[in-house]
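The records we work with from here on pair a chain with its fold. Each token is a code from a learned vocabulary of local backbone shapes. A record is reproduced here so that you can trace the correspondence yourselves:

_____
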Amino acid sequence: PPIITSSDCEGAGKVFTVTSEPELSGTRNINNQASSQDGHFFGRPKYLTVSSQLHLEAFVHEHPKVWTFSPTFRAEQSDTPRHVSEFWMLEVEFQTKKLDEIMGIVEDSIKSLVNNLRGSTVEEEFMTAIRQSDELEAASSSESNTTLQRRWDGLVRQPWPRISYEDAICLLKDAADNNAMQFDHQPSWSTGLHSEHERFIATEVGRGSPVFVTNYPETIKPFYMLPSKMDPTHTSSVSQTVECFDLLFPEVGEVAGGSLREHRLVNLLQSMQRHGVNYSSQSLKTGEVDRPAQSNGPGPLDWYVDLRRYGSIPHGGFGLGFDRLLCYLSGTRNIRDVIPWPRYFGRCDC
């Protein structure tokens, strides 16, 4: 999949814009090439990819299972031990109708990785590094050998718990109301989970194992996710949810996320309207949606809409942050310490 893209897959607007050196309007560069439209090298604004998912969806119509391991870029101004601006993601897309199947593949893949590392030189190097760290009294940057062994055991010893977003919010509110935990951000249905909430859920529900949190509200998730089937007997006043999950690791927080994708054309267009995602009149045909398109010229996601127009199939997938997983397996607390040349807010030295 391409590194330079025409859209923000996650819809959060935290992207790096790709540009060439600025040129004077109407001039030519040193190779005597005319300046491109509106000063943009590609004619229109382009960005560094935040995810390869949308492009993998183009392949999944021909191939039942596809994946990529590639760099990803996020322009988040977050100066925390969990965030960098450039990292690597394993992304998988395949034909399926069940969210449980996607979560099962994520769980089985990580468990298989850990089991294969058992007794290997990689495990020995991790454990040796922790022991040396303890001897040098540098435990502030790494975990003890015993804690690291316990982490690895927690990944493989039992099925990982699954909890709905609604139940997770109730758990957080109960903890806050009973003074069992004080949060800087009060848990709320509409605001999502903050890092402190994720750590609490992973600790209380996982008990040493990762936890799947499923079925988040539609309003806080990207436009491409398939809506959940609402139980007609459900009496809760919560809004529409989507078929998705976040995988939370103890102390680290979110390591992977995935969903079923909206494969129906009209439903996709309606979701794009609700999320304010740009598409053009050229991507529409009479009767497909009730409201007008958001632009008259070509839209950056016209090609994605066409994947539904000319025949689609139920499918889904996930993305797994490799660097965060490596942090957890190695006992390293700061993600920058597992990346040779980390790029993060305010720093890109080499």
User: Anything to note?
Assistant: The chain has a mean pLDDT of 85. The radius of gyration is 22 Å. The longest strand covers residues 86-95. The chain has nine helices and ten strands.
